[in-house]
Amino acid sequence: MIITTAAPARLQGELVMPGDKSISHRAALIGSLARGDTEVQGFLAAQDCLSTLSCLRALGVSAVLRGDRLLIRGGGGVFTAPRKPLDAGNSGTTARLLLGVLAAQQFETTLTGDPSLRKRPMDRVVEPLKRMGAQVEGDGTRLPLRIRGGNLKPLTYTLPVASAQVKSALLLAGLQASGLTVIEEPFPSRNHTELMFEQFGVTVAVAGNRISIEGKQIPVASQVRVPGDISAAAFFLVAGAIVPRAVIKIKDVGINPTRRGIVDLLMEMGADIQIQNRRFWGKEEVADLLVRGGAPLRAITVGGDAIPRVIDEIPILAVAAAHARGVTVIRDAAELRVKESDRIAALARELAKLGAEIEERPDGLVIEGGRPLTGAVVESGGDHRMAMALAVAGLAASGKTTVRGAEAIKISFPAFLSILRSLTC
Q1: Domains, the chain, with CATH or none
Q2: Catalytic one of 48, 87, 229, 312
Q3: Is the per-residue pLDDT at 4 higher than 90?
């Protein structure tokens, strides 16, 4: 699939984002572990989240999705052995979190994924799960993996790299273990799992970067309302910031402090963004975001504890940096090399095609902003976030920008193109 973007005559409108992908995954998984019927409003019916539902159904879970309303009947942690391998598709969240769930199941399961996912590292989850008592066979670092759960023992573990997926997998395993599991991370990563546990009546203790969970708790079914996805909103925040005279209001967006790094960094760069109507949906903070174009952007340095709060948004942040006066430095982000693509290499290569002055570093990028961009033919590399970031870059480039491999967008944001077109009509 190929999409083409160009500088629009106008970029204005009021939007509602699809449900948050991270929260949708967790609502389904924790709902399946709960006792009783859980209703999830605003569930993201994109390919990644559908992979989670498909795997849960194969494990005997009743999961009925009508539009964006999910009804899931939990069995209190009891699943049935699947008849064939579980396929996580392209979803790293599905694969890693599901390993944490399967670690306590008294049957053998094979977990696999598409060619892209089979290249992504799983050892960071597998090794601590083995220490808890799970049996995992395969090469230990990549899918497919065979896992046979057991009576898990608790774990005290320090994550070598801040990762919400690894942390969440170990907390899901710890929920089913006998005793107290303690996870410590070098920097705070997104805390949707901890908040979702609380909403389902599970006690989790958080002290700084240290998270503790007592095992053998059974979640109680809940009503979950999923906020709009801040990672999806990020593309329109940057579009609004780099296109002159743009005015975009995005309603009901999740602004969890561990996720809203893109908002904070864009405001640090000088973007005209207002956070309005702040409130809570369950345990998650929600707001409306208003962005106006025309404010000059300035370069910033991003690294350290800011990276976990913006790791998924770095492709679109790099587009903003290409329009910012000065030299933007993104460091401590080597994790980007093992996403759906090597995003560091891809950003350096594809943004350079548009005329950006960009240098690839082992753990990040150096972007000298302020140079006019010119439309070109660019490649997504099968990466949904790259495809959307490049499409947005084309809105502030002269001429037309053609993005190849745009079908990857359906993995996380099927409505992206239609929403973008609604702003320019």
Answers
A1: 2-19+227-424 (3.65.10.10), 21-225 (3.65.10.10)
A2: 312
A3: yes
